[in-house]
Amino acid sequence: QVQLVESGGGLVQAGGSLRLSCAASGRTDSRYAMGWFRQAPGKEREFVGGISWSGSSTDYGDSVKGRFTISRGNAPRTVSLQMNSLKPEDTAVYYCTAGALVGSSYRWNDWGQGTQVTVSS
Q1: DSSP bridge partners of 69
Q2: DSSP for 49-101?
Q3: What confidence tens digit (pLDDT) does each residue in 7-56 have?
Q4: Which pLDDT tens digit goes with each residue over 49-104?
Q5: Which candidate, 83, 112, 80, places its Cα nearest to that of 99?
Q6: What distance in Å separates the CA atoms of residue 91 and residue 116, rounded to the nearest whole number?
């Protein structure tokens, strides 16, 4: 099992930027993809972005394409999410996740506790 800890959430005005980070610990014997989901009150959890172990493959949810960038950190088993041009509808709890990239599909196995992002209008 992988333990995931998110950081970097907070309150920002519309049009602003935030950077989320996630560090994984626990299993160090395998290489895994990492990603981000978000969930707003009353809504289903939504895919934000995913990145392969090497960082060579990335995917994004349609609502964040062109505004958010996912990247691997310098430290092993870390991932960041740079969020630019934030909108009030980006307000949600953001969850870090880890899993496997099988072909072109992700299989997410482990989840962090989440970090709140609030965008004011």
Answers
A1: 82
A2: EEE-SSS--EEE-TTTTTTEEEEE-SSTTEEEEEE-S--GGG-EEEEEEEEEE
A3: 999 999 999 999 999 999 887 667 889 999 999 999 999 999 999 999 99
A4: 999 999 999 999 999 999 999 999 888 789 999 999 999 999 999 999 999 888 88
A5: 112
A6: 8
Residue 96 burial class via C-beta count within 10 angstroms: exposed 0-12, middle 13-18, buried 19 and up: buried
**Selection from 63, 56, 47 nearest residue 97 by Cα:** 47
Tell whether the torsion through CA atoms of 118, 60, 106 and 3 is positive or negative: negative
Give the three-class secondary structure for 118.
strand
Distance between CA atoms of 53 and 21, rounded to whole angstroms? Answer: 16
